[in-house]
Amino acid sequence: MITPSFKGKLLVFSVFFLGIASGMLLTNALKLRAGEPKSADRAKADVTKFYDYLALDEAQRVQMKKITDDIRPEINKIFKQIRPQMDQIEALRKESRNQMRSILTDEQKKKYDEFSEAMRNKQKPKRTN
User: Fold this and answer.
1) What are the b/e assignments for 63-90, b being 16+ CB within 10 Å?
2) Neighbours of 21 (CB within 10 A)
3) What is the pLDDT of residues 33-45, one digit of tens each?
4) 106: which of 45, 49, 58, 89 lies 20 to 30 Å off by Cα?
């Protein structure tokens, strides 16, 4: 019999793992939108790195893959539902940036653009290979 304590731990682990998997999927999707090339190999390498970090044996790796494969259709369904809102958010951000730039002097626009670029670069994940 599965104890309530074990069920709770399993639920917490599942939520944690699904969060990581969802984050990886959304990050990859956003990178694709930004024009970066698709990299299934990089995604597989990231998952392998995560599994190695957890020191999973082969049976655990198979179970983890099954869990993610089983939940992926639901995540994709939700992502399709929120994509229009994400596009609206990006359009609003672009509009607000244009409005902000319209009130700046040429020198201020230059500084604004430099600062914006620095922030974008800072937000990009740093990869060490």
Assistant:
1) ebeeebeeeeeeeeeeeeeeeeeeeeee
2) 19
3) 665 545 677 788 8
4) 89
Distance between CA atoms of 8 and 58, rounded to whole angstroms?
Answer: 24
Amino acid (one-letter) located at 92:
L
Q: 49: closest CA among 119, 129, 110, 121?
A: 129
What distance in Å separates the CA atoms of residue 9 and residue 70, rounded to the nearest whole number? 20
- Cα–Cα distance measured from residue 109 to residue 116, given in angstroms and rounded to the nearest whole number: 10
Tell me the pTM. 0.43
The most confident of the ranges 14-23, 28-37, 98-107 is: 98-107
CA distance 129 to 6: 37
First-to-final CA distance of the chain: 45
DSSP 8-state class, residue 37: P
How many residues does the structure list for the chain? 129
